[in-house]
Amino acid sequence: MSKVWQVYLSGEIHTDWREQIESMTKAKNLPVHFTHPVTNHENSDNCGATILGNEDKPFWFDHKGGKVNAIRTRTLMRDADIVVVRFGDKYKQWNAAFDAGYAAALGKSLIILHAPEHRHALKEVDAAALAVAEKPEQIVQILDYVITGSLPVK
Amino acid sequence: MSKVWQVYLSGEIHTDWREQIESMTKAKNLPVHFTHPVTNHENSDNCGATILGNEDKPFWFDHKGGKVNAIRTRTLMRDADIVVVRFGDKYKQWNAAFDAGYAAALGKSLIILHAPEHRHALKEVDAAALAVAEKPEQIVQILDYVITGSLPVK
Amino acid sequence: MSKVWQVYLSGEIHTDWREQIESMTKAKNLPVHFTHPVTNHENSDNCGATILGNEDKPFWFDHKGGKVNAIRTRTLMRDADIVVVRFGDKYKQWNAAFDAGYAAALGKSLIILHAPEHRHALKEVDAAALAVAEKPEQIVQILDYVITGSLPVK
Amino acid sequence: MSKVWQVYLSGEIHTDWREQIESMTKAKNLPVHFTHPVTNHENSDNCGATILGNEDKPFWFDHKGGKVNAIRTRTLMRDADIVVVRFGDKYKQWNAAFDAGYAAALGKSLIILHAPEHRHALKEVDAAALAVAEKPEQIVQILDYVITGSLPVK
Amino acid sequence: MSKVWQVYLSGEIHTDWREQIESMTKAKNLPVHFTHPVTNHENSDNCGATILGNEDKPFWFDHKGGKVNAIRTRTLMRDADIVVVRFGDKYKQWNAAFDAGYAAALGKSLIILHAPEHRHALKEVDAAALAVAEKPEQIVQILDYVITGSLPVK
Amino acid sequence: MSKVWQVYLSGEIHTDWREQIESMTKAKNLPVHFTHPVTNHENSDNCGATILGNEDKPFWFDHKGGKVNAIRTRTLMRDADIVVVRFGDKYKQWNAAFDAGYAAALGKSLIILHAPEHRHALKEVDAAALAVAEKPEQIVQILDYVITGSLPVK
Amino acid sequence: MSKVWQVYLSGEIHTDWREQIESMTKAKNLPVHFTHPVTNHENSDNCGATILGNEDKPFWFDHKGGKVNAIRTRTLMRDADIVVVRFGDKYKQWNAAFDAGYAAALGKSLIILHAPEHRHALKEVDAAALAVAEKPEQIVQILDYVITGSLPVK
Amino acid sequence: MSKVWQVYLSGEIHTDWREQIESMTKAKNLPVHFTHPVTNHENSDNCGATILGNEDKPFWFDHKGGKVNAIRTRTLMRDADIVVVRFGDKYKQWNAAFDAGYAAALGKSLIILHAPEHRHALKEVDAAALAVAEKPEQIVQILDYVITGSLPVK
């Protein structure tokens, strides 16, 4: 029975890069199980206060949410063989970089996905990665190669 | 194949909070496998002496039992993704707090469940938790959110 | 150069058991460095809010304090060879039991110090310990034996 | 012989927050050894190419530098008892967030230092911290409390 | 889906204690998977030389065998939740005691099975165990209790 | 349900030793799942540049490939119970020796397969192994013995 | 400043092998700090009951002692770079073999010292060792070589 | 008190690269403690047989030596912050590559030193390194930068 690779897709939640990776992977029939943080931005912000009680101070409102999200994200990163972190064009994305550091310290295989213009700002993060890619299809090509040994035909 | 989350329910054994959590989780069809200490109080007290031989001194009677229980509790906590610890209204419940410390040191996601009046006495324990709840349904809501990303409709 | 043993004294803060242990150890000239949580109860309660800003809600007031205390306690427990946890007569003392669990999971040599009447309530905690004592002088005798091999003359 | 606490000061390198913390700590005579990344921005950018040979492609120029810096930063973070990460007002600061994640996964005591306006963007990072402060003097007050048990007089 | 407990049965290979435990466990329908060293004494002695080439010197003959056996025993002990070690009446049985130490250092739940007359010689080994039993049926009773919470009816 | 042993076959990729081991293991019906690096030499060399973009400098061309290969090899070695490393007659084979060191530090059961003439050059590597064999059928005999206890009939 | 090697001398306590090793090491001026279990047999037997209170049942008398001894032995083994275990001619010496297994699982460099006639009984233990010696002076020669690179002149 | 960096210099033993690095480091007054394998080739080959008894079979002669050397090399690598591995022009140097893999799995900062012509053969090894250098002075420049932040003046 072949191994099912556990791949955690961290970072940017405003484009459909995860769906692209998942559908291309499915099309290739690769044995991969993808996991990711909650990508519904509103739920991700509100989860702590909605479940555990509202807070007047925004800090504690966010704190409760940040911790509830950590239950999911840290568990799934610990389960992962590979952690892919995508940095997008907007927002601070400090939680993406946090995840990259967390995964690196756990010894996970780290892949970073970002546009070339973020090269300099991400140099310490990229330095911890086993691959730095620009497009979702490269992630799928890496998975295909890593699992089956096949490379895309040029 | 989706992950089955391993959730250990530690602590108070005199109310039906575990059954509540388990039945609500089942109603939502969430992929969770619950484990817990032996909740039959009498068996939990007598297990060591019943199996391994009676003891005159109460200390050794209890010691044998405490250790046999540890075979179960430590194994299941090590297997767990999430450890929920409930503090009730009665008894010292030092084994509940011990479990919380044990789970924290193992890096487990810790959730503490207790009534507001224990806030101050539990401040060091709560400080190690990723969520502090008051009611069993909140545990189920956390599990639902953590696994599916859904929040309760207000 | 002889090893200096690191011994963390956790738990009850309302009697002078730490001072007793420390002075008897000093009298025997044993190479032990003792550490302990902050034992000024008021400071221990107020540290978070005093330094990081006051909170209206008691939960967050306590939460900030619990976490600042954890910076000290977890660091010193990780540094320790031996963790001694004393359970006294008053209060819930859940943080003492939490420390015992934390130390046990880190594989520290655990010694529990308590009056006989807490035997049953502490059975799971005692089961994780390498010694269960009733009086501070027994802790010093253990340290003396463990370090020098000497036993008290009867 | 008292413990010398190892404190790593990560993050923003364009203000004198490190010097402030170090001089206030020295004034209080606290047994702390501070470490930090190379804070000479130009050297930090150029180190890889200067030592190991120049690169035409900016990506590899940066990559060499990012890795040489990692020799220092990861070693010192592993040595640390406490990792303080400061987020400033400018730049992406992804390496600061990476360090926070790295330290969190190693189980270090994490303290985050940032202005209130970054609260929301840092919520996942703050959720992993044992203290969130706004000003350098608070870091020194935490160190003072954690090491000596003293709180600032109000 | 219920957990299948992994139980490694180490030690004495000249009586049928393993078969007794396995058949009683099966009769109770407990979800346990038992593993053990190779119990064919002759094969266990000869495995190294038979496969990897004969040796004139008895030391190397034995050395090759000891190492090939370690491939099995260390892997299965690492997989185990519980390690049971039985000391019999004959032979030095140093490999049994070695296994007990190995399992203890890995943090496995250790159960020791021996006749009362070996009490004193095994005191350091017993001190690392969570249960000390005399008869195979006690092992099965422990497994039953640990897995289902049931105790034998008196 | 019997354990499926995970065996990683590292090293030389120019002869059919893996196929021999796999087919003999299959003939014996042993529960083993074999994994290995990508053995298509050309793909193994080109994977980085093909997927992540070409490089003018051979060092970076190779570097990208070496890292993409590491995603596969380190994950599979971490999953393995046993790591077999074969040294052949040609090439430097430093990656084979690297894998042996990597596996040894992870505590894997290491088996080295090489011709007698490499004895001296491999002495430090062999010293870390639990078996040193010369022929693929010996690997299968070890697996058979380790899993079933059977030895080849002489 | 040169490293002081930590060497734990476990096992047989009825001959002067430790003194021999220590005096020869001192004569060579090697930077070694030796540690060992309590070698006063009577104290080692009585320590638990003398300090923590007498026991009627021999099992608990021994149990208390075994655990108090473990505070010393496990701490010192964890501190050690090298663990030497000597098997003598008398007694069961199961605690020696337990220590060898404990040290092996911690990844310590293990050296076994025994007379040739115990070869077969110790084959699994020897298989985990980096050296198997017969005489105390060989231990000192190993330490000399390992620390300074010098070999005895033949 | 400033940290003394522990740097292990592994690999090629037939040129004076270690002496060059050590003397340049001393000239710069950097707080570095260097360690290395035994570099007396003859002693390194003979250590096992000389101390532990001669062997007729070359395999066991070498095996004893390889293991005695491992006592030194694995201890010192575990102590190291940085492991530098140099590949020279002659011999198989499999033990150098083994050390690189061992250090990588322990999470050490790895620096590889080799001439450009070994680029392709070392690509998997280089891929695990934080720096790849060609000359001893570059190692010293890295140490200088990593410890003091200074770069060589161009």
TrEMBL record, chains A, B, C, D, E, F, G, H:
InterPro entries: YtoQ_family_protein (IPR019884)
Highest taxon above the source species: Bacteria
Name of the protein described by the UniProt record: YtoQ family protein
Organism, as annotated: Uabimicrobium amorphum
Lineage: Bacteria, Pseudomonadati, Planctomycetota, Candidatus Uabimicrobiia, Candidatus Uabimicrobiales
